[in-house]
Structures are given as C-alpha cells and as structure tokens.
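User: Modeling request: complex.
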Amino acid sequence: MIAPKYFRDDIDVLKNALLHRGEDPKIADDIMRMDMRLRELKKKLDDLRKQRNEKGKLIPKLKKEGKDTEELLSELKELAETIKSYENELETLEEKLKNALYRIPNIPHESVPIGKDETENRVISEYKGIEPLSQNPIPHWEIGEKLDIIDLKVAANLSGSRFYLFKNFAAKLERALLNFFLKENEKKGYMEILPPYLVKEEILYGSGQLPKFRDELYKTQDDLYLIPTAEVPLANLHRNEILNEDDLPLKYMSFTPCFRREAGSYGKDVRGIIRLHQFHKVELFKFTTPETSYDELEKMREDAEDLLKKLNLTYHVVALCTGDLGFSAAKTYDLEVWAPGVKRWLEVSSISNTEDFQARRTMTRFRRKGQKRPLYVHTLNGSGLATPRVFIAILETYYKDDGTIEIPDVLKEFM
RNA sequence: GGAGGGUUAGCCUAAUUGGUAAGGCACCGGAUUUGAAAUCCGGCGGGCUCUGCCCUUGGGGGUUCGAGUCCCUCACCCUCCGCCA
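Assistant: Request completed. Predicted assembly structure:
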C-alpha cells in the first residue's frame, strides 16, 4: 500500500508511476482529495472529543458539590450527537480511501526500465549450462509418455485440465528437487517454515493478492482461500508486530503447493505441465531494513541462481519493465530456465523487492535503537525454486537418446 | 458439534453503585561508581499539524453525558464431552 503523505507535495510522482504501469493516473487526484478531507475531519473530531472529555470530567465534580448538572448534560448530549455524525463521515471516507489505496500498485524503483509490457523486459545476464544430452531434444510430455512416468490423462480424469500426475521416477525426481532446494537454501541461512495452505481473506489483502486478483484464487465454503504461493503466509508472518532492528534481516523459506485458477489463460500453454492449477514451490522471503533491501534483493537473486547453476541448467536473468511488474513489486528479476524440448525459456523464479508496500498492509514494523517511532520493514520474495518447471528443464536436458535420464550429481543423494 | 472458563501495553497483575486505565518485572537512556551491582531520575501501545492533543483494555456493535466495568455478537486460547487421521 502506498502512503498518500509522500505525494502531497508532488502528485506527479504517483501519476507517472501509474502511467508507466499502464494504469489510469486520474485516481491519484481522487486519493489526494480524500486524503485532504480526511485530515480535516480528524482535526475537527480531535477538537470535539477534547471538549467532550474536558466537560465530562466536570460532572462527577458538580454532583459531589450538589450542584445541578442538567444544563451541562444536555449540552453534552448535543455534543455527542455532533461527534457521532462526524465519526460516521470519517468512517465512510476512510473506508473509501482504503478501498482506493488497496487497488493502487507499488511505485516502481528508479532502476526499473520503463516499458509497456513483457516485450520491453531486459535480459541482463545468461548462464550456459550443460548441452542437452539428446541430439534432438523432445518435449517433456513425450519423454513422460515414453517412460510411463507422467500421466496427464489420469490427472485429467481426477481433476480436469492443468493438473499433473507423476509416477515412479518422476515423482521421486520432483521430490528430490524440492529437498535439494530446501537443503541448499538452509545453508544460506533461510529458516524453514511450514505454513497453513488455507488462509483468511485479510491475509491476502496483506500480501497484495486482494482485492484486485480475486479471480485467480480458489476459495472454500468456509471463506478460507488456498494459497497461490507461500509468499502469502510468509508476508503475514510478523503481522502487527514491531521487530528488533538487530534481528533483521529475517530470512525464511517455505515449501508449499501453490493453487492458481489461471483464469484468463485459456488456450495458453495447454500442452504438458508448464501452466498448472497446482504446482510446488520453495519460496524465499526476507524482512529487511529499508537501506539494505536492494542489496538483499541481489543476494536473493544470487541464491536462486545458484540452484540452477548447481543443476547445470541454462538460464537467463530478466529485469522486468514497469509495464510487466507485479502489483506489489517495486523491482523484479525473473529467472528463466531453458527447456530444449519445447524450445522455450520457462520462468522458474520471480524475485521482487516490495519495499514497504506489503509491510504497510500487514503492519510489520521495526524499531531503530534509540528511536521512538517504529518504521516499516521492507519485504522481499522469490522462488527458490518452482517445480515442475525446473523438472521440465531437467527432463528435456538430461534425456538421452537411449531412453534413459541422467540425474544431475547434486540430486543423487535425494533420489 | 456441545458445556464451562478465560483475553488489560513484551510478560505479570489492579481498577467502589459505570466517572475517564494504577502498579510490578523485563528492557532502553541518564545520574552516581575505578568498574559492576544496588540506588535515584526519565522513558517504555499507536497517531498527529507534537510545550500539546486524540485514540488504545481480543475484534465489531449497542446503552450512556461518560464503558475495562452493563447488553449483543464474533474471533482466539484453556478444560471436559462427542467425532476423527
């Protein structure tokens, strides 16, 4: 959530940010107008409440002295009604302002390239892994069928399209990958959290999925939502807390399934297991101070890259442009792995600094030594990493023409 | 699902028939000290346009001039019963 007070002097900063993201900048005017009226109302209410408190204290005093309180009581009754009506107006306005603010995306960092959509993203580095072991790499679904380890037909019978079912070697390889990720990340100081997979609505407001992306979420009859990523529970881990500066940065990771409705992606990635309603991911998450968050972003990117390097896979790093940036992010790197069978770059990690955007929504703060006022932390998230997309790259890269799959060395202990 | 008990600032604990949240511990800063302990002073929920004011007793609502206190409702925790991997 953005803070209106930062734009009081220069509303164009906000308008430009909205423009670069492809949003209507007009909403900025509405917000500043509401912000101004809100402050007026608060001031007015403060004064009225002060009057009420001061005069109310006189009542027991007058009674003790045996004096008549009737006149004062009727005055106070009127005052109470005035206060009530201002309170009603304030409440309505706060609701309206919050509603508007909840729908404003984060302000892009100055280093983010300006662009309208994903075509203007920038590839900033490329890592060359092992050459495909097959002369003529084939798509993972063909490998899966040949070896009888992926059964999309049964998955469709059980759950419909965009679900997968792994058998035997495939099931083991996916599990090995996830265990490998967890072990490597733990070495880098991320503490493992196993969170609930069902969360309350307000938790999704905190991380930024709601109110704008309701269509992407599965909701249960008890008004709990299936998490689309472990970022959701992790971002809310220290909700309403004031952390110690000495404890920062806090580094967490979670392995969870991720559930996404993928509404509006009909006809996209229909073959194979590239786009799914359920997949698995190890998520990395950090709570940092404002001045270290961009260094921590680079470190998190290196941590995620390290996993792909150890698997010896070809990948590149993409700096997202303003038009392709996610709602909560101020800056994002995508890691895309090369899948030689489908001949495509597949996004396996999206690493973002949300600055204080989520912290404002979740009220996650820290106190600096010797300072009274608590400050908002910065939060960062990134996959480290997601299956089965990494699985796809491994299958298509390590499949040999003799019909066997070589297992990367680092995975052997997990098989 | 049913019955009962509970929730006051990081923790612990008060608050006459309803009168405007009192203390303790811990922690932080300062004084004192060769240093430490002890002691003393100050701070120790949040916000603001900050000499001051407003809000804050699990959340929301109601009664009232005024609610920690009375009423309704929800959440969470504990105990027991039932069901259950």
